[in-house]
Amino acid sequence: MKNNNLIRRYLIIGERRLSNYWWATVVLLGALGFLFTGFLSYLNTNIDYNLQVGGLDNTSVLETLGNTLSVTPVNTNSISLPSVPTIATDVPSTRISFFPQGLLMCFYGSLGFLLSLYWWFLIFWNVGGGFNEFNKKEGFIRIFRWGYPGQNRKIDLYYTLKDVESIRVELKQGGFADSQRTIFLKFKGKKEIPLTGIGEPLTLQEIEKQASELANFLQVSLEGL
């Protein structure tokens, strides 16, 4: 936020929030995992974990050593070695068939990949980001937002300070994710413009502080609190 006696500017983060980076990364990694597993099942490449530790008898060990070193074979009957117990561990293999498990994993992986790709594009474009500028020096209010690529990529609105009637705060209580706290700029003629970013939750204390500071700066009434 840029403040001085005549100009105030409030930055709007938009889609470049830390939570969006986190969830876009998690969804992308999960989708790639699903696609990789489904692709392996299509190639009939199974993920098997078979551990087999087998014991060899004394005779075969000595004969193998003799053949390898090209020396006179040793009479294995004259040598006694302690018997080694045979340990065999069999872990059941995990086999994923392509139909229907592998096909479903490819389907869900594709959906997750497209969702994460769309999410990363929103972050790159910073949709909803911008700023609110209140300029007493030149007597205008500027509302700037980044939109989707195209004709509405830049949303740049100008209003005069003398048309501002009040600042209104709207509080909609709900669950943890359903609570909505929005600051509106109310103009003469009942026109209202939201000042807070969409999907950018603010605490009740932050809403009250920002709304009261803005009302005092513009010298207008504060509604809703």
Helix content class: 25-40%
Uncertain regions: pLDDT < 50 for 5+ in a row? 47-62, 68-72, 84-89
In the sheet with the most strands, the strands line up as 1-2-3-4-5
Query: Largest sheet at a glance?
Result: 5 strands, antiparallel
Overall, the morphology is elongated
User: Which sequence of SSEs, written as H and E, runs from N to C?
Assistant: EEHHHEEEEEEHE
Number of domains: 2
**Overall SS class:** alpha+beta
The CATH topology name of the largest domain reads PH-domain like
What is the overall number of helices? 4
| Averaged pLDDT | 79
The count of strands amounts to 9
In short:
The protein is an alpha+beta fold and 225 residues long.
Care to describe what's here?
The protein has two domains: 2-14 and 127-223, PH-domain like; 27-47 and 91-125. The strands form two sheets. It has a five-stranded antiparallel beta sheet with strand order 1-2-3-4-5, with no helix packed on it. It has a four-stranded mixed beta sheet with strand order 8-7-6-9, covered by helices on one side. The longest helix is centred in the middle third of the chain and has 28 residues, at 98-125. The model is unreliable at 47-62, 68-72 and 84-89 (pLDDT under 50). The chain is an alpha+beta fold and 225 residues long. The relative contact order is 0.15. The chain has helices spanning 18-42, 58-69, 98-125, 204-218, and strands at 2-3, 7-12, 130-135, 140-146, 154-160, 164-172, 180-187, 192-194, 221-223.
